[in-house]
Each structure stands twice: as structure tokens, then as C-alpha cells.
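Changelog note: in this version the structure field was regenerated for every chain. One regenerated record is shown below for reference.
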Amino acid sequence: MKRIAAIAVLAVLIISAAWQALWPKGPEVGLDQGNKAPEFSLPLINGNEAHLADYKGKKVIVNFWATWCPPCKEEIPELKEISAKHSDDLVVLAINYTGSEASEEAVRTFVDSHAMKFPVLMDVNSEVLSQYEVFSYPTTYFLDEEGIIQKVQRGMVDRGTLEEFADS
């Protein structure tokens, strides 16, 4: 009887080890290339709510920016162009840390004056800014259709980087 119990325990351990070794694992949630991007939810500039998960199935460019940031202003035309050119399979999410701005209305005015048609999210309490460890503007995360980080760009992105990501 002891022998049967020992064999049963051994069989369970072997099956468990095989399960752990062979079962496909999802990527770890984190901020490095290859990690699944952390989920977030923020209000859009128009008052609606946006969730990162809403964009699963599309490539996502998550761009942290500010109205007072010169490189952020310089990359807006490139972001607008890539957003318009690849609107079927790519979305640009522009996240503004509203606490660093004069007012929410100033952000709205800026967005309107620059004809930013892609979703602009308001990170009023810097929750997502902190979650994504953004220490400088602009900072951009490139996510594939499954929300996996393909690249992190600290500093201004250029047309070539955006096109390469969109066409990959």
C-alpha cells in the first residue's frame, strides 16, 4: 500500500513538473521590451474613458507628452501622419500629465489648435505616468497587437521609427 501511494505521489510530481515546463506562459507584465504593457484606464480629453485593453488587436503607440515640451510639439506632425496613414491597424494614444499644465482647458486648446485627431488622455494624478516610469518628455512605448512592448523611446521619435513600427 505504501508503495502504491509513493508511486502516485511521484506521478503527480512528474506530471506537475511537465505541466510547468511545457505549458505556454504569457509574457510578464512590465516596462521592458517583450513585457506585456501594464493596463490603464484614463479619461479622454472629450470626457469619455479609455482603457488600453480597448485597443487590443491594433498596434498602439503610447506617447507621453506636454504642451510646454518643445520636442513633443515637434513630433506631433509625425504622430498625426502615422495615425492617419495607418488608422485601420494602429492607434496613437497621447497621454498628457495634466498636473504639469496650466489647466485642462489649456490642453484642450492646444489639442484643438494642433488638430490632434488621435485619442488624447488626461493623466490628472500622474497615475499612468508613474506606472510607466516616465521621467522625461516625450517618452513613447510601442505595443504590438497583443499589448507586448516592442520598443521604448525616451526622447523625440522620428518618422523612420514610426514607419518601421507601423510596417512591422
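Spot check on this record: The longest helix spans residues 2-22. The mean pLDDT is 90.
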